[in-house]
């Protein structure tokens, strides 16, 4: 049995989905798993239910913004927890936990008996297009400095791995994000009782938090340009007030926050899935949409471009007008929607299930996939 610690500040959305999936699988494989985490505004109230009972969760307040004094205190607390647990592996997730954890790892740098350290960015901070060149340059400089710490990067997509090698470090392995495919419902549009075409309004939508990274203003512009009695634009999720206001002003139906089961049920009612992200690592929501059998139109950014293959399972686009052109073509052609949706589903089933992801992760860690579960003799 190996002891594995996950450290995550970005405790919501896709990062939380991936951390819970990984931690649960590792625990069920017989390993001792601890998750040291913060809680954000977007952290769901029932987050503990996402983890199996055997996963030990430790709350450690971490701030997303840089705050030297608080960061020092948090780093000291993190050091104490890791020293007391004495894990074989420490896996850091997203920017803030990655920065704090890499600095803490220096305490073990000259020791041969310390844990092996890994860092998954889940979307590189310096690729955040909305932040501007100056701020992105600062993010890149910080990452270049931290890249000198001997920690192995784990990229969640091939394109993220290429960016890490280009800008930061050659010490990187790619472990694609994945989903539990058994929990993804089939899109209603692909079921036999839902013949195409249908008399109802065509539903075009996305699933996720309304936030800067997901670019709700871009989504709203696409919806405004395509306003029609035959189309319904839907955003399954809630979040930042300004983003929600922009969506509603464009006639988009915003569901507000809902739990995973409800979100997946809403996903199944869509006909076309769109992802207007400014940046990504490898979007879990897009994998889920593909697994449901939906064609996808997405921005041509890191992560999205690993999943969406033009004309095969969807389309990549750069501008609202390009989105509109692809969506109009799909809206007018039920057979094309079905064809691309079926090909998207086959693609997700072949490459993005949990089994290959966990095998790749264990190989990166250098530990056996399944722990020895033989019970110890009692005296």
From TrEMBL:
It holds the Pfam family Glyco_trans_1_4. SUPFAM superfamilies: UDP-Glycosyltransferase/glycogen phosphorylase. Gene3D superfamilies: Glycogen Phosphorylase B. Keywords: Transferase. It comes from the Bacteria. GO terms for molecular function: hexosyltransferase activity. InterPro entries: Glyco_trans_4-like_N, Glycosyltransferase_grp1. The keyword Transferase applies. Residues 19-182 form the Glycosyltransferase subfamily 4-like N-terminal domain. This is Glycosyltransferase. It comes from Deefgea piscis.
